[in-house]
Structures are given as structure tokens and as C-alpha cells.
Amino acid sequence: MRLAALDYGTVTSRLLVAEVDAGLLKPLLKKTTITHMGENLADTNSISEAAATRVVEASMGFLADIAALDLIDSLGSKDESLDSKVKTSVVAVATSAMRDALNSNQLIDKLAILGINVEVIAGQREAALSFAGTLSGFASESIMGQSILVVDVGGGSTELIVGRIETKDSVPQILSAASIDIGARRVTDRWLKSDPSTNSELADARQWVRHQLKDWYDDINKQGLSIDHSIAVAGTPTTLVAIREQMAEYDPELVHGQTVTSQELDRIFQLLASMTIQERYSVVGLERGRAPVVIGGILVLDEVMRLVGLSETTVSETDILQGIILDTWLRSTIPLF
Predict the structure, then answer these.
(1) 84 pLDDT exceeds 80?
(2) 138-317 in CATH: which number?
(3) Whole-number Å distance between alpha carbons of 166 and 66
(4) Is 286 helix (H, G, I), strand (E, B) or coil?
(5) Stretch (H or E) spanning 150
(6) How sure is the predictor about 332, in pLDDT bands with cuts at 50, 70 and 90?
């Protein structure tokens, strides 16, 4: 089965096309476009026309990519019947920005005209999909028997999922899942008004993020959940690796599985926080579109690591996109009767 997952986030719109067979996922195409859907959302409670246009244009490009991939595979086969088989099914979800915006339906309607039916998912479902997708990228033996915290720092929200894999063949068990309204875009728009941000703004933002995390941390403590290891996903941790390794051209295979220490995180945070947005544009490994919001994302990840007492985190290239595809595949294999 060939599936395409579209993930509409607060900062990025993303595509993953993959073949799934017996629960194993083979990626064929992955693309990310920075669309900043959540730009000015905190002030207006609405997705702007400019942001909606960026999302629609990115989506048109994604659909063209999918169609081209199907066509290439059909033409490249000696089986004349294949052109009827190579048809990618598209599954699209939207997260924090569309959950919050009062005018989400307007953008949903525009995407529907393109043939993209978007499901705006709740935070708990987002967390579950992110956990499943993240763990799919790691050999079960490497994390077996450990209590794993998956940290998915988005633009508008951060998903925090604690779970375990007890044996090699067992299904991942989610012990705690939370979606908290702290993310790179939200922290930036609410607290980091100056360019560069002042020490006072950074301190206030950090205090606010810590306060927002308190209920989640108190809850996992009440449950007696310990955390042995963390895996961080999405643009914030992958950007940290790209900057550390000075990647002029991003290489996901080199990023996946890398470890980032709290010292490295703090060094990069201090470097970027001292710069104006214009100065950040010249930092090797930092996408231009992430420059305005990267500080907010790093601050969130740093506070999570401090709170749970971890000195390092593993960075993952697998995330909610893989989770969407695996979940869709699983649902299609379950007989209705």
C-alpha cells in the first residue's frame, strides 16, 4: 500500500510518501515547506490570508510531487496494469494552529477544493501518532525495557509522551501523553518581542514555559513514572544537529539518531539569542524560515530536559508523519466484520 501523509503545523507544512507492507514503512519522498500558518495567530485568533495562501501553494506542490511519483512508477514498469495500481492515497492532518484559529474552516475548504480532506486532530491524538511514528525509526532492541520520553516541539504546541517497549515484538505502551500549548511560534509571539530578545524577555519566556509544564510534570510524578531516555523530534532538535555539524545541505540520515547534550543545546541557544534575526540568516545549518522562531523552540526543549533531569536527548527524523501512515495502514488492515 502506498500512502502520503500531509502534516499541517503552525510553522511547517510537510509531506511523506511511503510504501507500507506488513507494518514496515519504506519512505519514497519527504518534503518540508515553511509556511508559518501561525503567523500573528496569537494576536488575531485567525489564519491570515497570506499564511493560507502559503499553505495552499505548498499543498499544490505536494500534490504535483505525488502525481509525478505515481506517473514515474507507472511508466517505468513493464506491467501495463500497474498504472491502475500506483495510486497514492493521501491522508492529511492539522494540529495546533488550525485547532486554535477561529477561521480554520476557510483554509480547510480551500484545501478540499484541491482534493485534500484535512482532519484537525486533538492534542492527545497528535501525541499518540507522534509516539508511534518516532519509535518506528529505532530498533526495538535499542530502547527495549526503557521508559522513553518523546518530545515533539511544534510551532504552537509541544507533545510529551512517556512510554515503553517491553519486548522485541511487543506493541509500544503509552503510559502518559500530553499536548501543551507551548511551541516555537507561540513562545516567540507571546514573549520575544525584541530583536534580539532581551534577557528579561528570555527569562520571562522561560518562567512561563516552566509554569506551563508544571501540571504535566506533577502528573507523571504522581504516577511514579521514571524517564530513562528522551527522543526529540521535529524542526527544533534537527536544527540543533544541523547547526552543530554546520550542514550547508541538510542530510536527514546524518541527523537521525544523533545525540544532543544539554551543554550543546545551551551553547547554540546563547549564540542564536545574541543575534538579530538578520544575523541568524547567515548561521550554517539554520533554515532561513526558522530564524525568527528558533529561539522559542530551543527554549521549550531545554526546559523539558531540565525538568526531567536529562543531560542529553536523541534526535529523530521519524515523527508524526510516520505515525499517520502507520495508523492509516493499520486501520485499513482491520476487517469491519
Answers:
(1) no
(2) 3.30.420.150
(3) 37
(4) coil
(5) strand 147-153
(6) confident
Mean local confidence (pLDDT), 70-81: 62
Helices and strands in the chain, H and E counts: 15, 11
* CA–CA gap between residue 53 and residue 188 (Å, rounded): 22
CATH 3.30.420.40 fits 2-122+321-333, yes or no: yes
Torsion on CA atoms 173, 176, 179, 182, rounded to nearest 10: -120
Smallest CA-to-CA distance from 137 within 148, 126, 123 is with 148
Q: Where are the domains of the chain?
A: 2-122+321-333, 138-317
Closest CA to 235 of 249, 252, 253: 252
Q: Beta partners for 91?
A: 5
Q: Mind listing the pLDDT tens digit for each residue in 165-179?
A: 876 666 678 999 999
| pTM of the predicted structure, to 2 decimals | 0.89
Q: Which residue, among 48, 156, 40, has the nearest Cα to 106 in the 3D structure?
A: 48
Question: What gap in Å lies between CA 47 and CA 106, rounded to an integer?
Answer: 9
What does the alpha-carbon distance between residue 315 and residue 27 come to, in Å, rounded to a whole number? 18
